[in-house]
């Protein structure tokens, strides 16, 4: 599976050929397109579907600026999420971006909680980003850090309450979550 | 002229104009608009050199390694505005590894020391740190303009230093930078007494912004002409900001999406109706089609529209653009499709620049119906069109020939056919004939990017006909050394050449070594170069810096490599500063 291959090949930032796909960034901050491009760079991943395209991506081709890739990717994700989810009556626009970390992955991602209708869509989206729920890897659980800084298991409170209190997401290995 | 009076001049050895004081020459040179003209004047004689260099106010360092900061300060002591560019263009696409170089710090330090009256500083593709920004804030008491384009290495802390320290700043223009969000409320550090802002562009900032602080800033800066917001500003706040700054000329809207509500729509439409001076519009990320009509009242006045981040499609998009009859610049995504471009062609006859960006560049399948048809239509109907950047998935020679015939006035033609080696989709021939037509017809062409299936033949045409061409980008093209030879032995005005994934080798490089000193830089990656040729080139041309990079992950141990070893990336540029000392381990100077 392309995603796993990419992860196995990823090393610390700055020391991996996949890093070349994106211009220099600080280690702590990786937006979603960075990993997407890296996955694409190794195996032709197309992160709009679950199954990656069979085309092999070439580094730096087509010549689209990294900045533009990020912006379009974020917009496309939001647009496709909007067409498939029911709006929760949220007004006023403005994304609710939170960082998502997964144990074992060197880079964090960011997701806009407002684009999901509920926990199911969130889980699917995280699966699309990290491949954590559909692979044969041991079970993962979604946890989050709330306003008080406590680590909570996602799913207990209604969705609207969740997105108001969620500051950060963390995908934890099943053994730890227990 | 000269000393007045009508006495008989003796048969003098030196012509009378030598007696003119420097100030007269300085004044004369101030009418020369182009730096190259000033440079030519300075080369004429010593007194002109003295007058020109002392009176130079604006300086552009197109390659930060071509000269040292101290060289620049010594030669031009009265500079008030400086622009420095760093990494090669292909850095935009990830071909240059992190830590490659282009640090702004030495330039800021030299400027702080030698140009205390500096007013404007502009960096492009450079590594700018918070320390740099703090030094700028502390060193130039009349600092007015800071422009950072495609830079990285700094955070909102650096911006806070600028806001707090530069009491006369007029323009803070941040374009497509990587800015670390330290959650410092930098906007609130502009003092309450500060009112001089004319341009504020923070569209690339990812973090939140205090809207109240922004509103107060916008309200008290009555001269604000350009405001470009980031994604964090919601639609209803946009309306209230516009009401506080109706004099705005250029607006970047930031996020333009929300559920459709009639009262929000009315608020927006009313706010835009009040902006009678609005001429340039950008942003509209994630635009919701139902809100586009809120722009309708400003359409007539718009000269520039950048929707290249707006993933909106459909009839609302086309209707909106068609109302902008005075557009000179249009940047869109390929979601506009051929039929949308046909509408643009018939409505926007004053169009000068068109850019069409791919919405899904990495998808194998064609998702939008944007083909050569759209470009043909626009170039047929827009007589002033001179600059094009077009991403598409198919092209024909016939289309290119038609475009060339219709628009001999192109100055910039960049065509990117997304799949490498794509031939004419009808005849299955290479696109040599099409691009040849472009260079033969467009005698003023200054910038060209070619793509698709191309043989050496197209390079013979380019070398022979593209006399004014200054920048050429080639990828996945050509079939032998001849291709590169045609370019380097022709193209009289060539300044920048960037090549990737072409079968070009050592011979044309060495045969045309002298040409490289007439150019700013040459980039060749994934071609057929050997280390031996690079060594020879470096020996032959001491005023060129020959940089080699093989694997960005590893140090590049040149000494242990043989002449026959393959060179993955070559970057050559002329310089008077000698080899740079800040190369990372993966880059070696031969």
TrEMBL record, chain A:
Keywords: Auxin signaling pathway, Nucleus, Repressor, Transcription, Transcription regulation
GO cellular component, one term: nucleus
Annotated ranges, domain PB1: 95-174
Single biological process term from Gene Ontology: auxin-activated signaling pathway
Keyword Transcription regulation carried by entry: yes
Compartments where located: Nucleus
Subunit structure: Homodimers and heterodimers.
Family membership: Belongs to the Aux/IAA family.
Record PANTHER family: AUXIN-RESPONSIVE PROTEIN IAA14 (PTHR31734:SF14), AUXIN-RESPONSIVE PROTEIN IAA17 (PTHR31734)
Known function: Aux/IAA proteins are short-lived transcriptional factors that function as repressors of early auxin response genes at low auxin concentrations.
Protein name per the record: Auxin-responsive protein
Origin species: Digitaria exilis
UniProtKB/TrEMBL annotation, chain B:
This protein's pathway: Protein modification; protein ubiquitination
Keyword tags: Auxin signaling pathway, Nucleus, Ubl conjugation pathway
Domain Transport inhibitor response: 77-123
Subcellular location(s) of the protein: Nucleus
Name this protein carries in UniProt: Transport inhibitor response 1-like protein
Main location: nucleus
Domain (COI1 F-box) ranges: 20-57
Pfam families hit by this protein: F-box_5, LRR_6, Transp_inhibit
UniProt subunit comment: Part of a SCF (SKP1-cullin-F-box) protein ligase complex. May interact with auxin and auxin-responsive proteins.
GO biological process per UniProt: auxin-activated signaling pathway; SCF-dependent proteasomal ubiquitin-dependent protein catabolic process
InterPro entries in the record: COI1_F-box, F-box-like_dom_sf, Leu-rich_rpt, Leu-rich_rpt_Cys-con_subtyp, LRR_dom_sf, Transp_inhibit
Presence of keyword Nucleus: yes
GO-annotated cellular components: nucleus; SCF ubiquitin ligase complex
